[in-house]
Amino acid sequence: MTITQVSVRDARFPLSGGAGTDSLHTNPVYSYATALLQTDTGATGTGLAFTLGGGNELVCQAIQLLAEPLVGLETEELMAQLGTLQRRLADHPQLRWLGPHKGVVQLALAALNNACWDLWAKAHGVPLWKLLLDLSPEALLATLDLSYVDDALTPAQALELLRQPRSQTHFLTDGYPGYDTSAGWLGYDDTKLAENIKKSLGAGFTALKLKVGSDDFTRDLRRATLVREAIGDAGSLMCDANQKWSLPEAEAACRALAPLKPLWIEEPTHPDDLLAHQRLNTEVVPGRIAAGEHFPNRIVFKNYLQAGALAYVQADAVRLAGVSEFLAVSLLAKKFGKPIVPHVGDMGQLHQHLVLFNAIVLGQEPVFLEHIPHLKPHFVHPAQVENGVYKTPQEPGASCDLR
Amino acid sequence: MTITQVSVRDARFPLSGGAGTDSLHTNPVYSYATALLQTDTGATGTGLAFTLGGGNELVCQAIQLLAEPLVGLETEELMAQLGTLQRRLADHPQLRWLGPHKGVVQLALAALNNACWDLWAKAHGVPLWKLLLDLSPEALLATLDLSYVDDALTPAQALELLRQPRSQTHFLTDGYPGYDTSAGWLGYDDTKLAENIKKSLGAGFTALKLKVGSDDFTRDLRRATLVREAIGDAGSLMCDANQKWSLPEAEAACRALAPLKPLWIEEPTHPDDLLAHQRLNTEVVPGRIAAGEHFPNRIVFKNYLQAGALAYVQADAVRLAGVSEFLAVSLLAKKFGKPIVPHVGDMGQLHQHLVLFNAIVLGQEPVFLEHIPHLKPHFVHPAQVENGVYKTPQEPGASCDLR
Asked: What Enzyme Commission number(s) apply to this enzyme (chains A, B) (predicted)?
C-alpha cells in the first residue's frame, strides 16, 4: 500500500445552544483540519487536528506545506522510519520558525502523523489498539521522536517500559468508564445544568466535569455545589477553568473549590506557566491539578512532570504531533508515575484506542476517558459509550473517518 | 488620523552563499509578514513579523483574520486602549486555540501591534524612541497587556519602574555598540570566517557571534578558538547553538566552550525546556545562558526569569506580540535585574528604538544590539551602524517601512 497523494479537508461543525462553551472559548465551531493519505489500493488514512473553527484553513494549508515527503512511501517502509520522518517534518528548516513544535505547524503535523497510524492499522485490517498491542517494543520505538526528552527518557528506558508484563486486558471485553464533559458547559444556565446532571447520571456516568471561570466566581461555586450534591460523595467532580485565572486568582479559586473535593481542577491558568502550576499542584491543592490540552509538545510535558506541576496528564493526540508524540508523552508519564487522562479534541474517537494501549501495555491507572458526544453523527464509526462505559472499537483503523 | 483599512504584504528576501544559516535553519529566506494600517491621511503604519520564508503566507492570512477590530479607530483612541485591545485580539475566542499566544497567530499579532506603534509615532511626527520617552508612565501602561504576569509584576509595580529617574541619555547623541552576527554563519567555511572576522574588526566591532551546533563538535571548538584568538581577550565572543543540542549534549558543549570565555552561550537547547536552561545557567555555566528569540510570549519570559534560567534576555518584538509585549518583557527583566539584549528578526530596525527606551527609561545595561546587515537595501530608512555603533534614528516612526 503506497501513498500516492495527500489531500486535506476543512471540516467544520457548528454547535448550538451554548454547547462547547467555556470561560475563554465562547463561540466554538468544532472543526478538524483533516489530512487524507490517498493510496494505490483505494484505502485512505485519515488524520485529525482539532480547532475551534477560526484559522482551521491555516492548519489545512500547513498540512500541504509539510506533506510532500510522505508521497511515494509504502506503508511498512513509512512506519519503520516514522520517528525519523516525524523529526524531519518537525524540524523543517523554514517552517520550524513558525513554532518550533507548537501552533499551526504542530497541529498540521498532528493531522499527518495521525493519518499515518490510521493507514497502517487499515493496512493490517485491525483497529489501532490491536496494532499497538501487536507491535514489538522495537517497532513501536521506531515510530517515536524522543529528541529533547532523552535527559528524562532514553530509548533504552522506553524499551524497558514497553517490555513490562501486560495487565488489565479485561478492559478489552468489559470496556472502561467515560466521564461526562457535556453536562456543564459554561453557557448553560443552572436549570439546564441540573437537567443535564440528571440525564448524565441516568445514562450511567458517575464522573462529571463542570466548566468554571465565570466572570462571577460565586456562580462557579454555586454550580459546583449543585453538581456535588447531585452526584453524592461517591461521584467524581472535575472543575475546568480553561486558563481563565491569573495565579493569584487561581490560588483563591482552588482553595474555595477544595471543600467540594474535586478529583481535579483543570487548566487553572495559562498553559505556559509551569511555575504557577507547580505551586498550585504542590502547595495550594496538592495532587489535584490537571492540564495538558494546550501543551504543544512532549518537551512541555517533560518539564511539567519533572517539576511535579500536574497530577493528571491530559495529553491530546490531536494537539500534540499525533499518536507518535502522544505515545512519547505516555512513556514519560509512566516513567514519572502520573496517569494520562486524555483531553478529547477528537471526541474520543482516536483516544479510545490509545487509552487501551496505556492501560494494557503501560499498566496505567485510572483507565478513564472524557466523553463529548456532540459530533457523533459526523463520524463513520462513532465511539460506542453505553451505560457510561466506552466499548472497544472493532473496525480497522483509528475510528477517525468523517462522513 | 483614522485607520481605514488593514492590508498585508508577503515580503521575501532570498539570501545567498550561506548567509543566515545555523544548526537547524539551513536555507533561510528572510521574510516579513507585514501588516499595513492604511489611514484617511495617507500615512501608513507598518508592522513586521519575521519568518524564514515557509509559511509566511499563513502569518499574512492570520493578520487579516485578526485585523477587523482596528478598522475605524482613530490613532489616539487606539493607543489609549491598546493594552485592552491587545488582550482582546490575543484571546480571540476561536483563533486562541491555535496558540494560545504562540506560533502563527502570535506572529500575526506582532505585526499588527508593531504597525500600531509605527503609526502612532508617525502621527506624532517623531521617531518611536522619542514617542516612548515622551509618554507618561500611565499612557505607556495603557498600551500593555499584563495578564498572566501579575503575580510577578503588578500594574502598580510597572508604574513604579517607569517613574524612575532617567539615565544614560548620552546614548542619544553617542549611539551604542552593535555586535556582529554575520561573521560566523554556520554555512561559512573557516577561510570565509577568518576573512569576515578581519572585516568585522576593521568595521569597528569588538563583539562577534559565532554559530555553533555543527554535526561535528570539534568544528565548533576550532572555530570558536579561531574567533577568540582573532578578537583577543578584550573582545566578546558569543556562541549560538540555535537549539541544536539535547540537554546532555548541551552540558558537554557548554563545558567545552567555557575555557574560551564566551560572554554567553545562546539557545543551547529547546526553548520550551525551562528546566534544562535553569540547570545550564545555574550549574553548568553559571550566568552565561542567553535565550529568547523563540520564546513566544511574556509568560515564558516570566518563568525563565523566576527560575533564573537565563542571564541575557533576548526578547524580539517581531516574535513576541509586538512592541507592547516587548515592553512588558522589558519591565519584567528590569524587575528581575536581567539585561535585555534583543534578537533582531527586524534586522535592528525596530529594536534600535526599543534599546534606547530600555537604556534611558529603565536604566538597563549593557546597552548593546545585534547587527545583521543582509536586508539593508530593502528598508526605506536602514539602521545606521558606523564604526560598530548604532546611530540614533531621526525619521518619524519605527523605521520598518520596506521599499
From this structure: 4.2.1.68
